[in-house]
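#lab-general

N.A. 3:47 PM
ok so I finally got the sequence cleaned up, no stray characters, all 70 residues accounted for. can someone with queue access submit it? mine expired

B.Y. 3:52 PM
send it over

N.A. 3:53 PM
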Amino acid sequence: MSRVAKPPSKESVRAHRERRRAAGRVLVNTDLPAELIEQIDQTKEAKGVRGRTPIIEEALRFYFEKQQGT
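B.Y. 4:20 PM
back already:
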């Protein structure tokens, strides 16, 4: 017997987002070129992370650190 995961309820999504906000996180939505998403996904797989957020966060930190050094 296989189990099918139920999608999260609106209440659980709301609670998750509130916990993230309380932890100082801000939700950002943006459109990116498909080739950039492919590179992010390849990096995600290579690093063994579950989502794109850690890859994008690392790239932004690297960018701003490099900007401060110039």
